[in-house]
Specification:
A: 276 residues; alpha/beta; B: alpha+beta
Chain lengths: 276, 89
């Protein structure tokens, strides 16, 4: 590994659980690696790790983040290289129930070491606003706030935005942390019928720039079933294309926003089937 | 599907309105101390200077609206007040 890099640290956060943080971390991390970037995805969900499972690396975990912090293992020993993408690495979370195992100094050291080895460090935050979540965002340059178009998710995202603006190292230095909104599980036909908050509603309420809109899709479930990021498992599917676009915007490219439209056929509507 | 639902507007506008009101309050609460808590403590301190009451018999209700909010403080004051006042005199 060359030691001349200086990674951008991205936290994928949301407050609420189950909105798609881990899926999005895996998909965006993989999408960056598919573009040749050197990426490490770090699981901060101590006690309830899942990023290893979504990436299909669950049987290869030997050491974890806590082991590295406690000096039980060296960082290169704990990093797991993805089987499909050469430039994608995983630093798994520990399954210990001791939440205090994660220390601020320890995380700072690990992030500093990772910064010299990678182009991107993507931190998968646990749900909630406790220690794990605040430490996941602590050293981030950029935050991706994952939100479902649903009242409790939007409220929790607003709370997380408040924390990003006050509890991160960047905010404490008086700088503004770069924040992006990633809307996931979007169902265009529901929004069109006024049954689901629209993209404009969510943007107006949270007022941070939009990184992407990921449509609700069975492809996401299929990808996690087989243990592959959706961008790898079916790169041409609607959610994968949305993640690729989001990845390019994250890199600073000006990609026009594609708002998923109602793609259901008349038969699907008649029988109330969900869109793919 | 209930045929009447076809004529009903979706529930998203209600979600949007509720969120806008709630978040306006939560955002302002972040930058200042808990207004409800401060008011409750000060009101109770003020009243306890004059009458003795059971703190469990105090009901505080708050309704946060778009432009105005209401704070209702309902304190059950025992009728022994007059006796206490007479003794004090």
């Amino acid at each position: 590994m060359s030691d001349k890099r200086s990674a951008r640290v991205v936290v994928v956060t949301s407050g609420k659980g189950g909105v798609g943080k881990t899926t999005s971390t895996a998909a965006l991390g993989a999408a960056l690696a598919q573009r040749g970037e050197k990426v490490v995805v770090v699981d901060f969900d101590v006690g309830l790790r899942n990023l290893d499972l979504v990436l299909g690396a669950e049987r290869r975990v030997v050491f974890d983040l806590i082991n590295v912090i406690h000096g039980v293992a060296k960082l290169p020993q704990a990093l797991i290289r993805d089987k499909r993408l050469e430039t994608l690495y995983l630093l798994p979370a520990s399954q210990t129930r001791d939440k205090d195992a994660l220390t601020e100094d320890g995380v700072a050291k690990v992030i500093a070491e990772l910064r010299t080895k990678f182009d991107w460090i993507v931190c998968d935050s646990p749900a909630g606003i406790e220690r794990g979540a605040t430490l996941a965002m602590r050293y981030a340059d950029t935050a991706i706030v994952v939100t479902n178009p649903e009242v409790s998710s939007v409220r929790d995202s607003d709370r997380i935005i408040g924390l990003l603006d006050s509890k991160t190292e960047k905010a404490e230095r008086g700088e503004c942390i770069d924040k992006h909104l990633l809307i996931t599980r979007y169902q265009p036909w529901r929004a069109a019928r006024g049954e689901m908050l629209s993209i404009d509603d969510v943007l107006e309420i949270l007022s941070i720039p939009l990184l992407g809109i990921i449509p609700e899709s069975e492809e996401v479930l299929r990808a996690s079933n087989v243990g592959a990021p959706v961008t790898v498992n079916n790169a041409s599917s609607a959610p994968a294309r949305a993640y690729f676009d989001a990845m390019l915007r994250l890199k600073g490219e000006a990609i026009p926003m594609h708002i998923p439209s109602n793609s259901r056929g008349i038969l699907d509507k008649l029988f109330g089937r969900k869109a793919a | 599907m209930n045929p009447f639902n076809l004529f009903r507007r979706g529930s998203a506008p209600i979600a949007r309105e509720r969120l806008q009101i709630l978040l306006a309050h939560e955002r302002s609460a972040r930058s200042q101390p808990d207004l409800l808590g401060v008011l409750r403590e000060e009101i109770l301190a003020l009243i306890s200077r004059h009458v003795r009451f059971n703190p469990d018999k105090v009901q505080i209700k708050m309704d946060r609206g778009k432009s105005v909010s209401t704070l209702a403080v309902d304190i059950e004051i025992p009728n022994t007040v007059s006796v206490m006042q007479q003794r004090a005199i």
